[in-house]
């Protein structure tokens, strides 16, 4: 039934608003009107959305170059504007991708967009429930869990409570093959009083306010994993090699980190 939802007849949708900020076409007038209201409170919202996407693109390019050809994107939104399966297949033509989102309208829209793409599935599930995600028919039919998977948690964990996020991140890596990888981009209020204001605002259509965290708040999530390149860094500037400034230096509002599971490594 969810695939029959008409986007034109729904309230503002966070994934479609995100698409609008990326310059996409998968949004409606009501989404653009809502974005204009958000801009009055946080004029930098568009830049934050584009920062998440820039981080995701850099990570997918890096992983694809290393041979990763399976991806699981949590809180994926609508797969548009150079999304994971499009970008990964430039390097890995056979890349398999599962998108996960909790919102029924977003999932219905996403499924329509990728209906003709082999090796791509959209799962309606909560990213904070790794057991359900990894056991789902969508994941099991598209991804080979006996081989490494790249997990993208881009702009989603700040909508998950402390306890659930702390449990979910290691659970994803523990539930996948050794050598799997995980990337996180996350909002921070460090040096950004405007983001603190947004985090305490009654968002309405944006579901609920984000949790603002810094590396010290999230370090335990990746204990025992090998951090790639700069470790915790400004998500917008993330690169696998060379020095990368922190979000506290750039005041980008976004931390990013990439890690690899190293079980079985001597």
Count, helices: 11
What sort of overall outline do the alpha carbons produce when their principal axes are compared? globular
State the helicity in percent bands. Answer: 25-40%
Averaged pLDDT, please? 92
- Could you say how many structural domains there are in total? 1
CATH homologous superfamily caption:
Vaccinia Virus protein VP39
CATH class: Alpha Beta
Briefly summarize what is shown:
The protein is α/β, with parallel strands linked by helices and 266 residues long. The protein has 11 helices and 8 strands. The protein has helices spanning 14-21, 29-41, 45-65, 84-88, 104-113, 130-135, 137-142, 162-174, 193-199, 215-218, 247-250; strands at residues 70-74, 96-101, 120-124, 150-154, 181-187, 226-227, 233-234, 254-260.
Description:
One of its GO terms (molecular function) is methyltransferase activity. Keywords: Methyltransferase, Transferase. This is SAM-dependent methyltransferase. The chain is α/β, with parallel strands linked by helices. The protein has a single domain, classed as Vaccinia Virus protein VP39 (Rossmann fold), CATH 3.40.50. Helix content is 36%, strand content 15%. It has helices spanning 14-21, 29-41, 45-65, 84-88, 104-113, 130-135, 137-142, 162-174, 193-199, 215-218, 247-250; strands at 70-74, 96-101, 120-124, 150-154, 181-187, 226-227, 233-234, 254-260. Strands 1, 2, 3, 4, 5, 6, 7 and 8 form an eight-stranded mixed β-sheet that branches. Helix 1 (14-21) crosses helix 2 (29-41). The longest helix has 21 residues, at 45-65. The model has no long low-confidence stretch (mean pLDDT 92).
């Amino acid at each position: 039934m969810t695939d029959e939802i008409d986007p034109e007849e729904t309230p503002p949708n966070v994934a479609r608003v995100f698409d609008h900020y990326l310059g996409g076409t998968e949004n409606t007038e009501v989404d653009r009107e809502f974005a204009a209201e958000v801009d009055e409170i946080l004029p930098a919202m568009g830049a934050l959305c584009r920062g998440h996407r820039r981080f995701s693109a850099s990570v997918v390019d890096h992983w694809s170059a290393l041979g990763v050809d399976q991806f699981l994107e949590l809180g994926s939104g609508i797969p548009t504007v150079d999304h994971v399966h499009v970008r990964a297949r430039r390097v890995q033509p056979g890349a398999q991708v599962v998108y996960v989102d909790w919102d029924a309208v977003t999932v219905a829209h996403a499924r329509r967009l990728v209906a003709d793409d082999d090796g791509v599935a959209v799962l309606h599930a909560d990213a904070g429930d790794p057991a359900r995600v990894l056991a789902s028919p969508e994941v099991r039919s598209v991804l080979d869990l006996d081989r490494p998977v790249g997990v993208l948690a881009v702009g989603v964990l700040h909508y998950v409570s402390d306890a659930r996020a702390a449990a979910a991140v290691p659970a994803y890596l523990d539930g996948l093959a050794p050598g799997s990888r995980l990337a996180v981009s996350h909002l921070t209020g460090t040096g950004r009083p405007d983001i603190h204001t947004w985090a305490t605002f009654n968002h309405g259509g944006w579901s609920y306010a984000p949790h603002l965290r810094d590396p010290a708040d999230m370090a335990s999530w990746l204990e025992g994993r090998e951090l790639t390149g700069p470790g915790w860094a400004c998500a917008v500037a993330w690169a696998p090699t060379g020095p990368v400034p922190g979000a506290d230096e750039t005041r980008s509002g976004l931390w990013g980190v990439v890690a690899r599971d190293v079980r079985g490594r001597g």
